[in-house]
């Protein structure tokens, strides 16, 4: 699963995405770094609306239309690439509402005994990227919401976790975005794990384990003697 990520340079990342998809995008006026994005946070998403790519604030955690009126709404942060086109909560989004989720890195946790040790994964040279996602229109009860697609792990992530997010780069963003029909082979190609050679990782401080924490300390080196901060 991918349940935490960061977007430290929203404006620069969105400018790169605009270049990759050959379209103008209006970056958010606010460019405050987000060090610890998690479920229910509102983040910028590139989606096709009115037949052109636009930036829209959306809530992370896709709320299926049949959940909107419930007091306790089900929120889906991830969808598996292997099954998303056939499962009811995702198949319409996979076909008609594919989106780009701008990001600079994501976190996964290594389990050692009772400890959850976070690792930050980025592209080499901290290059900007986007997660492959789907989005769901909102209504008076819930805002527009999105989910991030996951796939099998590459060699870098496999020792830490059994899944990884689908990462899109310059060549894959434009064909993923929107509602054009994707053949089975095109869909499989676009949702393959990115090569481990294109990525880098490092251990970071367990301060990021707490979803309420934000700020540069999330990227600090791990403590020499880790305290038992296992709260998520």
Give your account of this protein's structure:
The chain has about 230 residues and is mainly beta. It has one domain (about 5-215): SOS response associated peptidase-like (hypothetical protein yedk fold, Alpha-Beta Complex), CATH 3.90.1680.10. Helices cover about 10% and strands about 30% of the residues. The chain is built from 4 helices and 13 strands. It has helices at about 10-20, 90-95, 175, 185-190; strands at about 5, 35, 40-50, 50-60, 80, 100-105, 105-110, 115-125, 130-135, 145-150, 165, 165-170, 200-205. The strands form 2 sheets. Strands 3, 4, 5, 6, 9, 10, 11 and 12 form an 8-stranded mixed β-sheet that branches. A 5-stranded antiparallel β-sheet has the order 2-1-7-8-13, with no helix packed on it. Strand 9 (about 130-135) and strand 10 (about 145-150) form a beta hairpin. It starts with a strand and ends in a 29-residue tail after the last strand.
